[in-house]
Amino acid sequence: MTPAPRRTHHAAPPREDVLAAAMATIAARGLDGLTMAGLGREVGMSSGHLLYYFRTKDELLLRTLEWSEDRLGAERRALLAEPGTARERLDAYIGLYLPAGHRDPHWTLWLEVWGRSQNADDDARARQAAIEGAWHRDLVALLAEGVSRGEFRTVDADRFATRLRALLDGFSVHVTVGIPGTGREQVLAQAAEFLDETLTPGPRQGDATGVTTAS
C-alpha cells in the first residue's frame, strides 16, 4: 500500500514581519485596506491563524503601533544623544514627532488606536500610556538640560513638556488629516516660533521687565 503523503507544516512568519506588513498596508491603502484576510494573504497565513496570535483587530493595531514606536524610539534616542545644542536636538525631536505629511501611516494608526481606546481594557490603556510616557520623559530631560545650561528660559520642564506635546498633537492631527494651511513645513515653522517666544532666555516681548521708558 502506498503510504499517505506527509503533511507539510509551514512555519508562521516572525511576528515582526506580520506587523511590518500591516504598517506597509496602512501606508499603501489606508486603514480601510487593512483586513485580517488581506493581511493573511500578504504574509501567507489564514485570517484564523492571525486571530490566534492577535485575538482581535484592536490588538493587531496596538501591536503594530508598538512595533512602529519601538523603531521611532530608537531613532529618537539616537538623535537626542547627538552632539549639539539643546535647541538643535529639540528641533530634531519635534521633526521626528510630527507627521511626515498628509496620511502619515504612523499617525493614521495612532489616531485609529486613540479612537478605539474609549472601550479599551486596562492593559491596552497602560500600553498606550507607556508609549506616551517615553516621549514625555525624553522631552522633559531635554528641556531640563537646556534650562541647566542657560540655553532655555527657566521653566517647569514637566509642565512645559505637557503643553508642548499637546500643541504638537493638535498640529499633528491637522497635518495627518490634511487641513489646508497646516502642512508639515508650516507646522514646523509655527513650532519654532512658539519655542522662540517661550524658551529664549531673557525678558519676553511685552513683559514689564522688557519695557523701557524715556527719562
From TrEMBL:
Record protein name field: TetR family transcriptional regulator
PANTHER family given in the database record: HTH-TYPE TRANSCRIPTIONAL REGULATOR RUTR, HTH-TYPE TRANSCRIPTIONAL REPRESSOR BDCR
Key word Protein biosynthesis present: no
Domain HTH tetR-type, chain residue ranges per copy: 12-72
Gene3D superfamilies: Tetracycline Repressor, domain 2
Entry-linked PROSITE patterns: HTH_TETR_2 (PS50977)
Coiled-coil region: none
Keyword terms: DNA-binding, Repressor, Transcription, Transcription regulation
InterPro entries found in the cross-reference section: BetI_C, Homeodomain-like_sf, HTH-type_TetR-like_transc_reg, HTH_TetR, Tet_transcr_reg_TetR-rel_C_sf
GO MF terms, alphabetically ordered: DNA-binding transcription factor activity; transcription cis-regulatory region binding
Pfam families: TetR_C_6 (PF13977), TetR_N (PF00440)
Annotation: DNA-binding region: 35-54
The species this protein was found in: Streptomyces arboris
